[in-house]
Amino acid sequence: xxxxxxxxxxLGNICRSPSAEAVMNQFIEKEGLSKLIKTDxxxxxGYHAGEPADARxxxxxxxxxxxxxxxxxQIDPSQDFDYFDYVIAMDNQNIRDLKQMTTENHQQxxxxxxxxxxxxxxxxTVPDPYYGGDNxxxxxxxxxxxxxxGLLNHIKNGK
Length: 159
Ligand code: 4NP
Description:
By secondary structure, the protein is an alpha/beta fold. It has one domain: Rossmann fold, CATH 3.40.50. It has six helices and four strands; from the N terminus they run E-H-E-H-H-E-H-H-E-H. The protein has helices at about 15-30, 55-65, 75-85, 90-100, 105-110, 135-155, and strands at about 5-10, 35-45, 85-90, 110-115. Helix 1 packs across helix 6 (about 135-155) and helix 2 packs across helix 6. It is globular, with a radius of gyration of 14 Å. The two termini are about 15 Å apart. Bound molecules: 4-nitrophenyl phosphate (4NP). 4-nitrophenyl phosphate binds next to loops.
């Protein structure tokens, strides 16, 4: 069976989307689904391409048992919209930027907002924590844990 492939996207690919990838990977492993679901992450921008995840984000994630090991890369619209089944953005600006990258309807349909998969949180975005304090990083993880569980359930239900 073909793997379901998920690309998480934020602005810099050093805070939110690497965290989404790590949280989702841990949930996938816990449910024994590693052979069926594959994840990656990318930034709308290439500002931080080649860099590891933000040290503050890494610390907050590590304290919850997640290891952020990804290296930042910029999304490649010429390949990523074909390869991935889900292109999941963290905020509304990410969505706008992604929608400008492709005019193909079947590719636009792959674009989702992470918070669409939340069941406990009412949040409408995963807020950018980069210029804020500790609370912002914790909030990112709270929202992502809720949304990743919802996303996994959605995929398991064959949606
Ligand atoms: P991310 O956070 O999009 O969650 O990776 C940011 C990282 C870097 C910047 C902004 C947001 N920046 O302006 O450099």
